[in-house]
Structures are given as C-alpha cells and as structure tokens.
Design a protein that fits this description.
Layout: E1 11-18, E2 21-28, E3 31-40, E4 43-50, E5 53-58, E6 61-63, H1 67-84, E7 95-105, E8 108-117, E9 129-135, E10 141-148, E11 154-166, E12 169-178, H2 189-194, E13 199-204, E14 207-213
Antiparallel strand pairs: 1-2, 1-14, 2-3, 3-4, 4-5, 5-6, 7-8, 8-9, 9-10, 10-11, 11-12, 12-13
Length: 216
C-alpha cells in the first residue's frame, strides 16, 4: 500500500476527468465525499456519495431521487473512484483475500491475489470478485481482472499503462479487455492475455489528475 502511496489518501483531495465527467474525492479523518459532475446543456449535475449516503444536486440545488436510481448512480460513482486509487480500500474489513499461485507474465514474476467481499459491509456489489497481479519487484498492480453482476454481468481484464506518481500517490491508465470465450474463467484471464485471445474494448484514461494532501 505504501509503495503506491495509498496511505496518503486518508487525508487528501483528488480530482480528475474521466470520459468528460469531473470526479473529486475528499477524505479526512474518517469522513469522505466522492463526487461526479456532469454538464448537460449548461446544467451541472453532481452526484455525491458520502458518509451521509447518496445525494444529487442540479445547479447546486439538492433534488430527490428514487431509491432504485440512487443505488445505480451511487454504484457508478463508487466504481470509478474505486479503480482510480487502487490498491486503496483493499484492507477494509469487508475484504476477503486469497493468495493464488504465483505466475509469470511477459517475463516478469507476479503475486496473484483474489479479492472477494463479505455480505456485511460489502456494499451493493459484494458479490463481485477481483484478481490482482502484483509485480514482485515494484509491488505495483500491473494487471487486474474482475467479475461483475450489474447490467447482465461479465468479466474484464485490465492492463496498466502510463503509470505515474502525483505527490507520492500512484495513478495508472488501463487497457480494458474482455474474453472471447463464452464462459470465461476469471482466474485464467492472464493466460488468455498472454495468448493474445482477449479483445480490447476500451481505454481507461484519467485526465488532469490533481492531488492536494490535507493536514493530518
């Protein structure tokens, strides 16, 4: 965790742009706020996930949102923030870690860790499963895969690229792949990657990353 600087995130403000939407996270002494702002026809829509739950603001005015939609919006906001600061959060109480056999990818050795979540405190997506490939020398996450259940479910494999440090915190962009198999096995996606059988579906690019470290 310290190699990636995620220990600094407990007291930091971070902002970035992802797919033309602005994201901002603020954490301080156990309090947090995860925001997403979208501009539609000069209207500012800001979704906020915090210790107080989910809230939506339109041009800075709070509006009421159906519970079913609030869950979807909150999940979408959480997802982007979650991936942007990995491995932050992987020591939370709801996290269940399982060490898988070590592997070699493109001549480099990796620890392979499976992450699942307990139902209690695991959030709406507690059934999702992740696998992380951690470079045995740098201790950075170079690859990750996950099985998700929303929107019909599926699996994805991500390859980190353009990794950089900003005020001691590591950020990375990713190539995002899916399997060409009809019934892919999550733990085998690294083999498919090396066999060049994965299909690239998108790029995960964080733009204009800004970091402010708050006083402890």
């Amino acid at each position: 965790m310290r190699v990636s600087g995620t220990n600094l995130l407990d007291n930091a403000t971070i902002s970035f742009y992802f797919r033309n939407k602005k994201y901002q996270s603020m954490r301080s002494k156990g309090k947090f706020s995860l925001d997403r702002t979208t501009i539609v026809d000069s209207v500012f829509i800001t979704d906020v996930v915090s210790n107080n739950g989910f809230q939506r603001f339109v041009n800075n005015k709070k509006i009421k949102v159906l519970d079913s939609m609030a869950v979807q919006y909150a999940s979408a906001v959480n997802s982007v923030h979650y991936f942007s600061v990995l491995p932050f959060g992987l020591n939370d109480n709801a996290v269940i870690k399982k060490r898988l056999p070590e592997v070699s990818i493109n001549g480099k050795e990796y620890y392979k860790i499976e992450i699942s979540f307990s139902k209690e405190d695991g959030g709406e997506d507690f059934e999702d499963v992740f696998i992380y490939w951690i470079d045995k020398k740098s201790f950075f996450i170079d690859y990750l895969a996950y099985a998700f259940h929303v929107n019909g479910g599926g699996v994805r494999f991500r390859e980190a690229k353009d990794q950089h440090m900003n005020k001691g915190i590591r950020f990375a962009d990713y190539n995002n792949y899916k399997s060409s198999n009809k019934k892919p096995v999550l733990a085998n996606l690294d083999k498919e990657y090396q066999e060049h059988s994965l299909v690239k579906v998108s790029e995960i690019l964080l733009k204009d990353v800004q970091v402010q470290l708050n006083n402890n």
